[in-house]
Write a structure and sequence with these properties.
The structure holds two protein chains of two kinds. Chain A contains twelve helices and no strands. Chain A is mainly α. Chain A has one domain. Chain B contains eleven helices and 14 strands. In chain B, helix 3 crosses helix 4. The chains are: A mainly alpha, B alpha/beta.
Chain lengths: 277, 314
């Protein structure tokens, strides 16, 4: 028999998964997540119609650039914002949080259940998108070239790297936005501040860089992108202090855990006072 | 009586910024039915939210059966709270609403299912239990919330305006259920601004005004006080004209007016009990009563009268 807290986390998970996946409010997150899939697949279709095959190496760089500059920094970032910020804040606005608060459940257990639900939802959405993006991009090259890349080249390692970075991005940004949803009434202000903070990460002193998610994610991406020197994209993507994977992964997980502990303290003190929201 | 049999407020105050919620409340609530009575804004809901830990006191201490209210994991093993908040998880049926609460409580599937049906049966919602709550009437929503608050067999049941929106027949059944629960030794704490119900169902009454407890105990005089001050009641129904003609036959009805939206009747009566009995009779004879609610302005004026006389008597 499961300990009580596990039973309760599973109960929260069941409730939250249903809300997260069936919410009409979250439709834009699917759009954002699958936009690169549409772009890459369209590119392949156009190439196949024209009887052309793209440059495999160039496509690999295009994917790496799209993944770092759009997918991680914008799609996963805003997707996590939409899902995790609503886990508490959305329920306060809907005046439905008391359903949980009236049950004999530790607030920290509730937080863990909600976080887990958010992680499962975002990971499913964004890792599916990552796999479909890769499939869409390399479609025009044919199965033989693609399987050769997977089996004999770096394909599997790259794919694992991208999927791992996606999962860790969901955990990292998820913890930040869940906490922001508990701490702030208006999600736009903290979201804007975090976006700026993540964008200027490369320019921050070494110590401050560690207090951001992108710092760890950049080191996990299998291909370092090389935009034209001096451009805006080059400034965003520069990795001045790359970390080995064995530091980047636990580093990000520790960072997320610390953020969640702070959220736990706040949730413990949270009052239901819908009238003032 | 042991202190941990009671709900105890020790000099409790709650401020929302500069706004007073309740001030210097000291109470000891024994088992049985206790009604918190007062006009809108008097602090009834604040008091209930305080005793269930949804908000924390700015000053003072609260213990429910000896349990601190900032310890929800223990408190809600013994407490059920039927709130006024009328929002439900999206897409839920009545059954799912109660069942999911029991899973959060920690019940296994079989036990949760069993307790869910028992609670739903107790509030008389078996037939619509599998329908979505979004399609429920106000009265049905009240009853499913009540089912959720009693499903785990609490020792303290806190009910914020539980009779709001119930038609006369269901109201009578619900009051009977409260009596049964109280006879089983439960604390049933009810807030209401329907004055005539107070001495009908309560063992104890706590009268609140502007965040202060102005009187507590057995207020037997409330009913007679009310007879000198007609109470205004809004009845929503499908045939307002027929209803108005019927109620006017009663001596205690001072006035009966079709509501300006044409969908109900505003009735002024000196004897609400007699009027509710008449409504039951009318409901059984072809007029569908959708809701019965006191019209606030008049209720407030009666409170002013009552509270004024309480204060004058001190």
């Amino acid at each position: 028999m499961n300990p009580l807290w596990i039973t309760q986390i599973l109960a929260v998970l069941r409730l939250e998964m249903r809300k997260t996946f069936l919410s009409k409010r979250g439709f834009w997150i699917y759009l954002l997540a699958f936009l690169p899939v549409v772009l890459f697949t369209s590119k392949s279709i156009v190439e196949m119609k024209m009887g052309r095959t793209g440059d495999f190496g160039q496509d690999t760089n295009v994917f790496a650039t799209m993944f770092q500059l759009f997918f991680l920094r914008l799609a996963v970032f805003f997707g996590c914002l939409g899902i995790f910020m609503n886990l508490f804040r959305g329920e306060i606005l809907d005046r439905s949080l008391h359903y949980y608060f009236l049950a004999p459940i530790r607030r920290e257990v509730l937080l863990a259940g909600k976080f887990l639900a958010g992680v499962i939802a975002t990971c499913l959405i964004f890792t599916t998108s990552t796999v479909l993006q890769i499939a869409g991009l390399y479609w025009s090259h044919g199965w033989r070239v693609f399987s050769d890349y997977l089996m004999n080249g770096n394909g599997l390692a790259h794919m694992a790297g991208y999927l791992g970075a996606t999962v860790l991005a969901c955990i990292g940004y998820g913890s930040i936005f869940l906490t922001a949803g508990v701490l702030f009434r208006n999600p736009l202000i903290p979201a804007a501040v975090i976006l700026v903070w993540e964008s200027i990460n490369s320019f921050l002193p070494s110590l401050l860089q560690k207090f951001s998610v992108i710092y760890y994610l950049k080191s996990l991406c299998p291909i370092q992108i090389v935009p034209e020197a001096g451009t805006f994209f080059a400034m965003l993507s520069i990795n001045t202090d790359p970390l080995p994977v064995y530091i980047a992964v636990p580093g990000l997980l520790l960072f997320s855990a610390a953020v969640l502990v702070a959220a736990g303290f706040q949730v413990r003190r949270l009052e239901i006072n819908y009238a003032t929201e | 009586m042991r202190a941990n049999d009671q709900v105890i407020f020790e000099n409790v105050s709650k401020f929302y910024g500069d706004v007073l919620g309740v001030n210097r409340v000291s109470l000891s609530i024994p088992p049985g039915i206790t009604s918190l009575v007062g006009p809108n804004g008097s602090g009834k809901t604040t008091l209930m939210n305080l005793m269930t830990g949804l908000i924390r006191p700015s000053r003072g201490a609260i213990r429910v059966l000896g349990i601190r209210t900032d310890n929800p994991e223990e408190l809600f093993r013994y407490v059920g709270y039927c709130t006024q908040f009328d929002s439900f998880p999206k897409g839920f049926t009545g059954y799912q609403f109660v069942y999911s609460y029991l899973r959060l409580y920690g019940c296994a599937h079989g036990e949760a299912e069993d307790l869910t049906w028992k609670a739903i049966e107790r509030v008389g919602l078996v037939e619509p239990a599998r329908r979505k709550i979004a399609g429920y009437s106000k009265g049905m929503r009240q009853r499913i919330k009540l089912a959720q608050s009693i499903c785990h067999g609490p020792s303290v049941l806190v009910l914020d305006e539980p009779l709001n929106g119930l038609d006369p027949l269901v109201r009578a059944e619900t009051i009977a259920l409260f009596r049964v629960l109280a006879e089983d030794g439960m604390h049933v704490i009810i807030s209401s601004h329907i004055l005539h119900e107070v001495d009908q169902i309560s063992d104890q009454v706590i009268l609140l005004s502007n965040g202060y407890v102005v009187a507590e105990g057995q207020i037997r005089g409330v009913r007679s006080e009310m007879q000198d001050h007609p109470m205004q009641i809004l009845v929503r129904c499908n045939h307002p004209g027929r209803l108005a003609a019927k109620v006017f036959e009663q001596d205690s009805v001072v006035e009966a007016q079709i509501h300006k939206d044409g969908l109900g009747v505003l009735v002024k009566t000196r004897d609400p009990d007699k009027f509710y009995l008449l409504l039951n009779h009318i409901a059984q004879n072809g007029v569908t009563i959708e809701s019965v609610a006191p019209a606030d302005d008049d209720v407030n004026s009666v409170y002013e009268y009552l509270i004024g006389s309480e204060e004058a008597g001190r």
